[in-house]
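Ticket reopened. Same input as before:
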Amino acid sequence: MKVWEKRFSELPDDSILEFTSSLKDDFFLYPYDIKGSQAHVEMLCRGGYISPEEKKILIEGLEKIKKELDQGTFPFQKDEDIHMAIERRLQELVGEVADKLHTARSRNDQVVLDEKMFLKEKIKVIIEKIKSFQEIILGKAEENIEVIMPGFTHFRPAQPVLFSHWLMAYFWMMERDKERFKDVLKRNDVLPLGSGALSGTSLNIDREFLAKKLAFSRVSPNSMDAVSERDFIVEFVFSSSLLFLHLSRLSEELIIYSSPFFAWITIPDKYCTGSSIMPQKKNPDILELIRGKASKILGYATAISSLIKSLPLTYNRDLQEDKDVLRETPREVISTLEIIQRIVKEMEIHPANMQKDATTSYVLATDLVELMVEKGTPFRQAYRKVGEIVKILEKQGKDFSSLSQEEWNKYFPFPKEEMKDFEVKISVERKKSSGGTAPSRVKEQIARGRELLAK
Ligand code: ARG
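Engineering reply: fixed in the latest deploy. New output:
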């Protein structure tokens, strides 16, 4: 039985009902739907639309439905969505008084309310998960503060950096992600209930009461906007996709650095899987899945944005298709944050291998240029000269330190003794500019990171 069936001369058949039903997609909203309905009932009672006895019956009936849904005993039928299923069940449990539940309310404002309540809860969890990941990054950076690795540009060795500096790069990405989620939380914090189908209501409602009861800090200022906007989901999914881009970059780097060609880190066995044919294999599947999930979330960002593009105000049934994105995005974000932090915490670092690779490929060429600049050579001249020397040394299969005193003097305007400190460790220590990779600067970053997390 459909609530609107009296209006229709012919009813949709089962296959049409199945096509239009969102029950399996919006089932997850039921705890919020029940809570929202209970607050709504209280408000209706204050407005004199239902008696205190009726209020009690409705609230208890809704509570009973919540239990049925929690325990999996709820008797589902061919309901249009979770909202209609709950109203139908209430009717079965408490009878006619259930006819008053939907007073001064539409599913249009009800759906947005449920979605916002759900999202608020999830964003808070996500922020906490990001924070614990940041803690782990800080701990790992501190543990390995002086370990040196080659930093890349174009994926070619460029200059030596501290491994802790590399790790901290991800701390700051996470920091921006966290701030973005906090921002989404602010704009999500607007109560849509009381907007009716689109125009508000002629009945006496108290939206401020509802806002307080449901922990929203303000009410929506425009009913048409309130029932048709899904900006909060768009923003949330955009923020999630950016977070996923960061996690995907990290995963890619960890995959490379743990490969036998690098052997800079080892991913514990429990985060790997084997091959069904090659017995020797140990594959970094979890990290690969994170890359894969990043693509999926990017797809969600496109799906949710195109849902509202060109949609005339106000509610259109297209909007029902926001459910998968809303349900799945936080689930993926939370589980990915949980697992990546375990991997980062438990991965084993091999400093000697990193350091060895940090001494190859003339990674100190820029240091040499900067030393010449300190001695008065104009930068571009020094740069050209070092480039020329690298070309010669490369042909001979030699590096800077293997130059004899005599050869050295041919190229450089200062004695080779001054180069005694010419090694990656000193190079890193010299990068004292603010935000640079010198240990003192990285320690500063870590301290700042700790301060931020303590806030
Ligand atoms: N299942 C619908 C959705 O999630 C509920 C809103 C239906 N509103 C309507 N006017 N048909 O979008």
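Residues 107-203+214-356 form a domain with the Fumarase C; Chain A, domain 2 fold (CATH 1.20.200.10). The chain has three domains: 5-100, 107-203+214-356, 365-422. Please confirm and we'll close it.
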